[in-house]
From TrEMBL:
Signal peptide range in chain numbering: 1-30
Protein name: Cyanophycinase
Keyword Transport attributed: no
Sequence similarity: Belongs to the peptidase S51 family.
Database matches in Pfam families: Peptidase_S51
Highest taxon above the source species: Bacteria
Length: 431
């Protein structure tokens, strides 16, 4: 199936609602909210496998541990039962209730004493201000937000253009501040974003056309919501499904367009665990099977060449399971079992003619961009490598360069597991 096909119901209505939100006066801001402090965020880049005991186990552990954790499951990003043609089939259904019960059973399988669906979706918005549902939330020690369409969380758990909290969302913020865990995958991770939450887009179209505020029918167009999501995570922009869909280019472009210095781009089945969220002691650890790209734009410079966008000076780190990152110092630390890699191979970096795994390329490969970067850090044959977009008119070239401060870590002694401080630039390809 073409990965651009969407199963979102009511897309036009959602786009209209988003447009109305964006047209609201910029002077109208969300009411003051208590800052998250003390609890843990576990934000997954989507594609979370049922057997990922590391991530599910950590959610349960942070919620009180096996046999004690009580976890509320929110799936308002899914369509409601009435919009799911397979609602009656437990093996094929995909709606808020069905998905909520699925995640609840899965969390109990991984050790939670109790996991319950919180019955809120776009057809049951009133439940977000129900005292009975608030009482259910108050009884929980952790929360899990499922995937789907993150804008449905905005319309279900926040109040209109003012973006004030519903009673349920206010209760979840209080629980997080008091030490609870809030986890989410895909849209459930994106919704933790602060200002300029991404709403869609592909890397090539992002590099070619730039970004725009909104929520668009064209899934390749880079869009964002200026007011953001719930604002639980403020160390940088968030992106998800990164290596699987080649979203590194769109992550860099959105950060540059919106004036953000940093973006965390999460691979599938991989999470950042943000401990002591919102406090001076906030720290980040990577969990899972792939990695997290951290793009540092503090020294980045944008411009144009031949009428097309360019950027230079982006610092690129790729962190994997167990690695830690301090968002205050911008410093990464290798996880246990990894050691510095001294490159000894003289094998050249393989050519890459599809840097961002284009949907139009039948021979493309996921994790293409990070693969080129890891190969570069592991060889003595060259200090720079290039990766071109599959699309042309114009084509873009990403130039990756080893800096004096570039470091790679290895688990097996020969290949790169993680690296820090490569430099990235993107320009129209030379004719």
């Amino acid at each position: 199936m073409n990965r651009h096909l969407r199963t979102r119901c009511g897309r036009t209505a959602l786009a209209l609602a988003a447009a109305l939100t964006l047209l609201a006066s910029t002077a109208q801001t969300a009411a003051a909210r208590p800052a998250p402090a003390g609890g843990t965020l576990i934000l997954v880049g989507g594609g979370l496998k049922d057997d990922n005991s590391e991530i599910y186990g950590e959610i349960v552990q942070k919620a009180g541990g096996a046999g004690k954790a009580r976890i509320g499951v929110l799936t308002a990003a899914s369509v409601p039962e009435s919009q799911d043609p397979d609602a009656a089939d437990p093996d094929a259904c995909s709606n808020s209730r069905c998905n909520g019960l699925y995640y609840a059973a899965l969390l109990e399988h991984h050790g939670a004493a109790d996991a319950e669906w919180i019955p809120i979706d776009i057809e049951h918005v009133d439940a977000a201000d129900s005292d009975a549902v608030v009482a259910q939330v108050e009884s929980m020690s952790g929360f899990f937000f499922g995937g789907g369409d993150q804008y449905r969380y905005v319309t279900s758990l926040l109040h209109g253009d003012a973006r004030t909290d519903s009673k349920v969302m206010a209760a979840i913020r209080r629980k997080l501040a008091a030490g609870a865990v809030v986890a989410g995958s895909s849209a459930g991770a994106q919704i933790a974003s602060g200002p300029d939450m991404v709403t869609g887009g592909d890397s090539y179209q992002a590099l070619r056309d730039g970004s725009a505020p909104g929520y668009f029918e064209d899934p390749t167009r880079l869009g964002y919501l200026p007011q953001g999501g719930f604002g639980l995570f403020d160390a940088g922009l968030l992106d998800t499904h990164t290596g699987t869909y080649g979203r590194e280019g769109r992550a860099i472009r959105l950060a540059a367009d919106t004036g953000h210095d940093r973006v965390f781009a999460l691979d599938e089945n991989t999470a950042i665990e943000v401990e002591h969220a919102g406090t001076r002691g906030e720290s980040i650890r990577v969990l899972g099977t792939h990695g997290v790209s951290v793009f540092d734009l503090r020294a980045a410079r944008t411009g144009t060449t031949g009428g097309h966008w360019t950027i230079d000076g982006v610092r690129y780190s790729y962190l994997t399971d167990g690695d830690r990152y301090d968002p205050r110092t911008w410093h990464a630390q290798a996880g246990a079992g990894k050691r510095p890699l001294t490159a000894t191979s003289d094998t050249p970096v393989p050519p890459n003619h599809d840097a961002f795994y284009s949907a139009a390329d039948p021979d493309g490969h996921p994790y293409s961009f990070s693969g080129t970067a890891r190969a570069l850090t592991a060889t003595t044959a060259q200090r720079t490598a290039t990766a071109d977009t599959f699309e042309s008119a114009p084509a873009f070239t990403a130039l990756l360069h080893k800096r004096g401060g570039t470091r790679a870590w290895t688990a097996d002694g020969t290949t790169t597991a993680s690296f820090t401080d490569l430099e990235v630039g993107v320009h129209p390809a030379a004719d």
